[in-house]
Amino acid sequence: MEKLYIPQIAKAVAATETFDFKEFIEGLETLTPVQGVMSVRHVGSFLEVSAKASTIMTLTCDRTLVQFNYRLVIDNSEMIWLAEPLPESEYPREREVEAGDLVESLSPNGYFDPSSWLYEQLTLAIPYPKIAPDAPALELKDQQQSDTPVDKRWSALSSLQLPE
Fold first, then answer.
1. Is residue 147 pLDDT above 60, yes or no?
2. Structurally, how many domains does the chain consist of?
3. Which residues of 57-69 are buried (b: 16+ CB within 10 A; e: fewer)?
4. Numbers of helices and strands, H then E, in the chain
5. Euclidean distance between CA atoms 3 and 64, whole angstroms
6. C-alpha closest to that of 36 among 48, 47, 50, 26
7. Residue 76's closest CA among 53, 94, 96?
8. When you count CB atoms within 10 A of the terminal residue's CB, does the N or C end of the chain come out lower?
9. Model pTM?
């Protein structure tokens, strides 16, 4: 995917660029090309980016270490502020940062890279932990019913327990 020149998006019909894609994303190991549709809309002070995409990738199960194929699907949207970055010399030594300040921003006269944005969204959608569909369930035992002997050093503390 080619980078989009932000002022050109503003001049498009309805200030929106919409395109279908079917390609491999650099840095993302997938079995099939990532395919879907992306829309980038210029709304004056920000870009509204949305995409629906899917691909298949091979993951390794964290429980069994067996590889399995996983269908990775996203339906995401994000607003990216358009603001000129401050030169590093103008950064204050200390600054209080609000949660709302922690957003992504691009230069209004710069470029938007759809491949990079899509890579980030797909990477965030990879499940954690990666558990294969046929992996056995974990058996959780109640510690009070455990058959393992209690360390003698802890038995003195059991007399300090409050009655329930």
1. no
2. 1
3. bebebeeeeeeee
4. 3, 7
5. 41
6. 50
7. 53
8. C
9. 0.76
